[in-house]
Amino acid sequence: MEKVKIGMVGVGDISGIYLKNITALFRELELAAVCDLVREKAERAKEQYGIPKICDTMYELFADPEIDIVLNLTRPYEHFGVSSEALRAGKHVYSEKPLAATLEEGRELVRLAGEKNLLLGGAPDTFLGAGIQTCRKLIDAGFIGEPIGAAAFMICRGHESWHPDPAFYYRHGGGPMMDMGPYYLTAMVNLLGGVSSVMGVSKASFPTRTITSRPKCGEVVKVEVPTYVTGILNFESGATGTIFTTFDVCYPGQARLEIYGTKGTIFAPDPNTFGGPVRLLRQEGGEAQEIPLCFDYAENSRGLGLADMAKALRTGRAPRESWRQTLHVLEIMQSFEKSSNSGAAVVIESKYERGEPMADGGVHGVLA
Question: In the chain, what are the domains?
């Protein structure tokens, strides 16, 4: 089968693993062109990964007739501008999370994709990895009985002590919910289905943050977004979930995701990873047992969702990481702050149904 050609916009910190996996892991993808506002970044990527073409602007990349899918790796507040122009140019779009910085922008991207009959979707794709897919198999097979609840926690002190350029985490489109919430919420809806309503409480504990990492050590960042967010989720299935994300506290770990059922509990892996461990506690068992992973892609497989979109494009099947998922997650995240501001529950308008589980493609790097 002819490879699907990818045009990458943005060569920032997350781009390295995409560059590696597109060129070395996913056999049905070809990285045809790359573009970045800092040309030196694009040149380094071209040299290291043998990319055929550097585009001076994103519009030059969008105009390339060879490119099938635009991979948007820009910062969250830039997602809408890049994705909307790519869609207007007639390109399918796969974006890093979140879909957009606001729900209104996300809905406009969906409208554009529908108007142009184009695929639109994006990260996180960790839910397609061996860990969360094994959890789904356990749930669907009834190992925990009827799912009745879930709890997710992402707790840390923030990124200014280690990230080379952390300011955007505290500006429009950032914050712990918009940054890390997509991993947890995407896993939760894939395991439990769509969300009907939410309630939330959010705040910013500190008005400013001081960067202590290099090269911007000493710079003071004004906090523009909530950095302490607690949410309650009512699932269409009747299950109830909670999620807590913060950049404000000291804590020895940061990732927990648990799924509760009438007959047992699943202790899921960090949803920001592709692998395990997956642990199952049954009512009659007494203690949690580690479950062997039942699927491929336990290593860092970022780009797996892009490969899935490419396969969907060529075969006509539904993509597993479509806008129906990314928009639903975006609406949930935005509704926590809306609920906090209003003091009332918020009804989720977007509808979501779980896509098909992962299937064995037969060859590592080739999807079914």
Answer: 4-122 (3.40.50.720), 127-291 (3.30.360.10)
